[in-house]
Amino acid sequence: MATTTPSFPSPSVMEVLFSTEQIAARVKAIGDQITADYAGLTKNGQPIVLIGVLKGAAIFLADLARSIQVDNTFDFVAVSSYGRARVSSGAVKLIKDIDNPIEGKHVILVEDILDTGLTLSYLRGLMLQHKPASLKIATCLDKPERRLVPIEADYIGFQIPNQFVIGYGMDYAEVYRNVPDIRLYPEEAVGH
Ligand code: IMP
Ligand code: MG
């Protein structure tokens, strides 16, 4: 389980929203869907490029890459928001770019949570400048109620209401990323 400090509640007291089995089943279903969608496109030997958004998407990407049955490779980007004012300012900054060119490649942006949409709409715009052959979005979780900009994912693990969750790569203050399932973070613990 996660390494916790006294100020952070143990994951064992948190409600499990999605079990490891439920997550694995959805990742397999998305992998199968991507396999079917891209089977014809990758016949020329060009692997799909999965681009994960650090750090939250790392675990979802690791599982997804292995559930896709056509050649795929991966890269990572990292973004930072300008503090907690992000939601009002909408400002997102790239702090780590892709390592390899994606021009002419079939690209899937892989994110942990599609929330306000600010991060993914910024990254989509940035990636499109590289002229990929195609660009799609896969997200483990989607919180449609929270959207501030119009953007939808092509592949979605689960839709959830406006609740804060941790585990399976997702953190609260960098804690809980290693929790293997997805749990509800208690409202009363927010703000520590
Ligand atoms: P947005 O779509 O630009 O608002 O950003 C989504 C990002 O916010 C995700 O990649 C997560 O890093 C973070 N985030 C949003 N909701 C949650 C949550 O419930 N738990 C953990 N991180 C979250
Ligand atoms: Mg994130």
Automatic annotation (TrEMBL):
CDD domains in the record, alphabetically?
Answer: PRTases_typeI
Listed cofactors? Mg(2+)
Q: Which reaction does it catalyse?
A: GMP + diphosphate = guanine + 5-phospho-alpha-D-ribose 1-diphosphate; IMP + diphosphate = hypoxanthine + 5-phospho-alpha-D-ribose 1-diphosphate
Residues in the signal sequence:
none
Q: What are the GO cellular component annotations?
A: cytosol
Q: Which UniProt keywords apply?
A: Cytoplasm, Glycosyltransferase, Magnesium, Metal-binding, Nucleotide-binding, Purine salvage, Transferase
Its EC number is 2.4.2.8
Phosphoribosyltransferase domain span: 21-172
Tell me where in or outside the cell this protein is found: Cytoplasm
Say which enzyme class the record assigns. transferase
What Gene Ontology molecular-function terms does this entry list? Answer: guanine phosphoribosyltransferase activity; hypoxanthine phosphoribosyltransferase activity; magnesium ion binding; nucleotide binding
Which InterPro entries does the record match to this protein? Answer: HGPRT, Hxn_phspho_trans, PRTase-like, PRTase_dom
Q: In which pathway does it act?
A: Purine metabolism; IMP biosynthesis via salvage pathway; IMP from hypoxanthine: step 1/1
What's one Pfam family here? Pribosyltran
Query: Domain of life of the organism in this record?
Result: Bacteria
Q: What is its main location?
A: cytoplasm
Q: Which Gene Ontology BP annotations are present?
A: GMP salvage; guanine salvage; hypoxanthine metabolic process; IMP salvage; purine ribonucleoside salvage
NCBIfam families xrefs:
HGPRTase
Task: Tell me which family the UniProt entry assigns to this protein.
Answer: Belongs to the purine/pyrimidine phosphoribosyltransferase family.
User: Which protein, by its recorded name, is this?
Assistant: Hypoxanthine phosphoribosyltransferase
Which species expresses this protein natively?
Granulicella pectinivorans
